[in-house]
Amino acid sequence: MDFRLTEHQVTINELARDVFSRNGNPERLVAVEAGAERIDRALYRHLAEAGVLGLLVPEEYGGAGLGLWEAAGVFVEQGRALGTVPLWETLVGGVLPIVRYGDAKMRTEWLPRVASGDVILSVAVDDVADARRFGARVRAANTGRGPRLTGTVADVRSAHLADAVVVPAADERGALGLYLVPTSGEGVRRETFERTDRGLACDLHFDGAAAEPLDGGPDEDRLEWLLRQAWIALAALQTGISQAAVRQAAEYTSGREQFGVPIATFQAVAHQIADCHIATEAMEATYLNALWRESTGRPATAAAHVAKYWAAEAGDRIARTVLHVHGGIGADVTYPIHRYLLWTTQLTNTAGSAAWHLEHLGDLIDEGERL
C-alpha cells in the first residue's frame, strides 16, 4: 500500500482548501440555510473558476482528466469547511458514470457545462433498496423512442437543483442498469423536503420519463461500481467533517477553564477527545485503503464497505462526543459546532447505514472476499 500523495495531489488539496476557506464562515452558512435553494452559489462558481468542478472531466471536454484520488482530497476539504454545494453528487454521482459509460453525444452535452459550473448533477444512491440484492424500484421500458422510466426513487440529494440525475433501473428482463434522466423533461415530478443537515432533497417520481442509457464502457456491474465510488467519496467527506469537529473541540476545551485550568487537562475530557482523534485516523486509513484499491484495479468492494462503515459508525460517535465536551454551548444553534452533528447524522445514513454496510461486508467475507 502506498497512500502518499503526489506533489500534484497536494497542490489540488491546497487549492480546494483555499477556495473553501475564503468562502466559509458561520454567518454565510446561516444565510445559505435560510435561502430557498440551500446552495452557496458563490462558492460553486468559485470552485468552477478554480478548476475544481472540472477535475474529473476529460481534457477534451474542458477539464483536467483526473480521477477519484484527486477528487477525494477535495471532499475532505469540503467536509472541514462544511461547504454547502452538491460536489460529490455532481462529480462522483454524475461525471464519473458519464465519463465511464456515456457515449460521445452525452459527454459533449454535459461534461463541458459541469466544468464551467453551468449545470448540477445528482445521483439516486441514498435509497439502498436500489442496490443489487434488493432489486430496483424504477423500471425501464424501451418504447421505440428510447428508454422510459417509471417508478420512484427516494431521497435524492440536491435533486431540486439538478439538471439531470443518474438513476438505477431494471429493464424488462430484470437486468439492472444506469440511466441519465434530464429533470426538465415530461414525466418527472420532484417532491422536495428538508433533510437533517438543513439541505434539500427530493423524492423523484417518474411516469414514462425519457432517459439515456449509461451502457457503454467496461462490461461490469455498473451499479456496484457506482456505489463503490459513492461510498469512498462519502467516507472522505465524513473524514473531513470529523477532523474539523475534533480540532474545534480541542481548541475549545484548551481555552475553556474550570477551577483555574483548561478543561482539556481533565482526564475525562482529554481521553474522549483523544479517542475521537484516533477514530479520525482510522477513518482516514480505511477510506485511503479503499481509494488505493479502487485506483489500482484491485478488488475494492469490501474495502469500500469498511470505509463507509467507519465513516458512519465513528463519525456519529465523534460528532456526539464533540457536542458533549462543549457542554451547554454545544446545544446552542447559534454556535457553529452543532452543524457537524447535523451533517454527520445525515451522512451516516446516506447510501447505507453502518449496520447495512456491516451486513454486506459479512456477506462478502462469507463468499471468500479478502479485505
From TrEMBL:
One of its GO terms (molecular function) is acyl-CoA dehydrogenase activity. Keywords: FAD, Flavoprotein, Oxidoreductase. SUPFAM superfamilies: Acyl-CoA dehydrogenase C-terminal domain-like, Acyl-CoA dehydrogenase NM domain-like. It comes from the Bacteria. The keyword Zinc does not apply. Residues 6-118 form the Acyl-CoA dehydrogenase/oxidase N-terminal domain. InterPro entries: Acyl-CoA_Oxase/DH_mid-dom_sf, AcylCo_DH-like_C, AcylCo_DH/oxidase_C, AcylCoA_DH/ox_N, AcylCoA_DH/ox_N_sf, AcylCoA_DH/oxidase_NM_dom_sf. It holds the Pfam family Acyl-CoA_dh_1. Its cofactor is FAD. This is Acyl-CoA dehydrogenase. It comes from Amycolatopsis rhizosphaerae.
